[in-house]
Amino acid sequence: MTMIRSYAALQAGAPLQPFEYEAGELPRDHVEIDVKYCGLCHSDLSMLDNDWGLSQYPFVAGHEIIGTVAAVGAGVQTVRPGQTVGLGWYSQSCMHCDQCMSGDHNLCPTAEGTIVGRHGGFADKVRAHASWVLPLPDGLDPATSGPLFCGGITVFNPIIRNGIAATDRVGVIGIGGLGHMAVKLAHAMGAEVTVISRSNSKKDDAARLGADHYVATEEAGALRAHRNEFDLIINTVSAPLDLDTYLRLLRLDGTMVNVGAPPEPLSLRVFTLFGNRRSFAGSSIGGIRETQEMLDFCAEHGIVPDTELIDGAQVNEAWDRVLASDVRYRFVIDASTI
Ligand code: NAP
Ligand code: ZN
Q1: Predicted model pTM
Q2: Which of 17, 34, 46, 286 has the fewest CB atoms found within 10 Å of its own CB?
Q3: Minimum-distance ligand 1 atom for the alpha carbon of 196
């Protein structure tokens, strides 16, 4: 039996406050992690506000988790106590559906989110099925690697699935937590990368992150100048956009992958897709093996999220700064302060 200390919201939109819960027996195929660091993803904020109708309260956010294995159930063979590991959006999947058997565990119809019907990583401990608890490769810093486990894999997936090569042009819309990692990853793959941001406030950073070009959409005609240009556009924006305007930026057979998750329905004109045989797609996180590949790739290429470390008590103020796009580019909670 384990008492877990955490920060929780007691109702939709309420501030997070200290909250303790009893976790019960550790199931035989589960791992208990001593949380060291946990990133703040925009999805935590959407779940806090119940934007997607999935939230349960008390709600403990946090799904970009780094820690050390505290205990393992009797059936666990993949990780051992003391090992440094990470855990992202999912904590469990069935392991026998078509999607799981194909390695697309993130698309398992019964996959369980770390913060959906479970308590997440803004806590001193968190638990998950062993299959989703991945060892952190040597060379990645535990203090900055948490955001790779949700934001990182979410943007790595469309880059890999669309076969992005050095000859390809990739546009990234929205330079927040996901967007800044998309720029780093696409640049490391050798692609020509264009940042599409609202203003010029991130222009200097964009070059440092690896972008070749910068578009500030608030400037009149800025997007029109890039029509028919991109092989892949990754839309990370958390609010609805005028999709047709952005789809027109795709060249022949180009694809726009929407990873941003606004609660509102989106609309587009099919005629925009007819032109250049364009595609509009969605993507959610990534499979287990793909996540490990992404971690290894980041370790090999020195790809590190840009993070700002905060104490647990600063989390409510940090939410406001995420909403105001005033974070460069991901907050990470130091779990020793919880
Ligand atoms: P974030 O750090 O808040 O970044 C979002 C960026 O979008 C902002 O930095 C801003 O970039 C831009 N933006 C925000 N509001 C906008 C608006 N009204 N109009 C135009 N641009 C706007 O969020 P995040 O953590 O990267 O997450 C991004 C989205 O992905 C969220 O919806 C999140 O829930 C979702 N998500 C999805 C998955 C998945 O599996 N599909 C996984 C993780 C997160 P600029 O200032 O550069 O314009
Ligand atoms: Zn996330």
Answers
A1: 0.98
A2: 17
A3: 47
